Amino acid sequence: MKTYNFGSAAELLRKYLSQKVKGVTSEDLEQIVHYALKYYAKIQHHHRKGDDHEYTSRDIKHLYHRILADTTL
Fold first, then answer.
1. Measured distance between the N- and C-terminal CA atoms of the chain, rounded to whole angstroms
2. Less Cβ crowding at N or C end of the chain, within 10 Å?
3. Domain count, the chain
4. Is the pTM value of this prediction over 0.85?
5. CB-based contacts of 8: which residues, under 8 Å, 6+ apart?
6. Segment 3-18, tens digit of pLDDT
7. Among positive and negative, which fits the CA dihedral 26, 32, 34, 36?
């Protein structure tokens, strides 16, 4: 399964979300993606920093659906 570093995962997640949500500034979307990835890394591997965590395509898909389900974007 392909893995992504923090920057690549953020870019991919931002791309997917920007296609689905409307009326959200790019800065807000950037913050949502940043905090989602950091939090996900923290709960998955609490001993590692988010920037060091590698994300699978499954992780990114999971976060995408969780963000859409948990927000009113």
1. 30
2. N
3. 1
4. no
5. none
6. 999 999 999 999 999 9
7. negative
